Amino acid sequence: MRKELLTSVCALSLLIGANTAYAGAYGEPVEPEEAPAAAPASAAVVVEEINYAALGPYIGLGGLYAVELFDDQGNSRTGNSGGFHVQAGYRFHARAAAEIRYEYYHEFDVDPGHIDGWSTTLNLKGYLLTGRFQPYALLGMGFLSAGGSAGNDPEAAHPSNGFGMRFGAGFDAYVTENLSIGPEFAYLLPTGSANDLDMFTVGLGLQYKFAL
Question: How far apart are CA 100 and CA 143, in angstroms?
Answer without folding.
Answer: 12
